Amino acid sequence: MSLILSSLSQGVLWSIMAIGVYLTFRILDIADLTAEGSYPLGAAICATSIVSGLNPFLATLLAFVGGSLAGLISGLVHTKLKIPALLTGIVTLTGLYSINLKILGKANVALLRQKTLVTQFFDMGFTKIAAVLVIGILFAVVVIVLLTLLMKTQIGLALRSTGDNIPMSESNGIKTDHMKILGYMLSNGLIALCGALLCQNNGYADLNAGVGTIVIGLASIIIAEVMIRNLSIGWRLASIVLGSIVYRLIILAILAIPGMDADLVKLFSAILLATVLFVPELQKKLNSRKPQLG
User: Fold this and answer.
1) Which of 19, 23, 113, 223 can pair with 243 through a Cys bridge, CB separation 3.0 to 4.6 Å?
2) How many whole angstroms separate alpha carbon 156 and alpha carbon 154?
3) Alpha-carbon dihedral of residues 89, 36, 192, 134, nearest 10 degrees?
4) d(CA 90, CA 88)
5) What are residue 52's phi and psi, to 5 degrees?
């Protein structure tokens, strides 16, 4: 039961990253690999700030700002230099590796005996799992509410229109490059925010923590879309939290198999993503084979 509760709390935290990936992957229709660099960037900024004596909440917000700046760089490279989105992500995450190393100063930074958001909840009598769950829910709710409100504004509608149809958006006076840059910034800011929260949960920030981040985000999104269809933007964002939790529970179930090697978790994550990506296509094939009535 403790493992299930731990997976539940971890899933809520990871959902913030998945929502960030959703903004580029679904809203803008861009596969952005910057996530693999902005996630450890957020963890690095948060950890070094806390070690330097900064308030953990401010350190967490600073991580969001750092991730947004990484997104700004990717957005400018993609829109101004006209580099394809996939290559843009590779360029940025490669550069971020060196930046993250300079911020950390070494491969990892421990937060032992440091005051973090998690330890502050300890002081209020919460257990670690309860503290992480509460923190995750609070941040997830704030993120979902703010993004839902944004998507209903003119800027949000312009952002969604840019992802749907760029020529039509440009013909209606929307500056699509600006919208792409905004999407990149919001996406990577949330991914870095997730990195900051998880580094406080884990007790350290690691240089290589971002490996496989995009897989986790995409799997959570696709699982949510397969489970629940035809939702408004607000409920879709909320459903990603459920998708992230289900993903963590599936990984837990895989690791619980007797004799399973924990070193293979990334391999099973990739296989799981490929499987859930194939499910919609399988459903289309099955529906096309159904006899048409009338």
Assistant:
1) 223
2) 5
3) 140
4) 5
5) -80, -5
pLDDT in tens, 240-255: 999 999 999 988 888 8
Residues 6+ away with beta carbon under 8 Å from 225: 239, 243, 280
CB of 50 closer than 8 Å to CB of 59: yes
The Cα 82–Cα 80 span in angstroms is: 5
Please say whether the beta carbons of 9 and 133 come within 8 A: yes
Euclidean distance between CA atoms 30 and 92, whole angstroms? 15
Q: What DSSP line would sit under 90-115, residue for residue? A: HHHHHHHHHHHHHHHSSSEEE-TT--
Give the residue among 165, 131, 36 at the shortest CA–CA distance from 88: 36
CA angle 154, 62, 92 (to 5 degrees): 75
Residue range 37-87, pLDDT digits in tens: 999 999 999 999 999 999 999 999 999 999 999 999 999 999 999 999 999
State the sign of the Cα–Cα–Cα–Cα dihedral 237, 155, 70, 91. positive
Look up residue 30 and give its two tokens.
């861009």
**CA-to-CA distance for 159 and 178, rounded, in angstroms?**
9
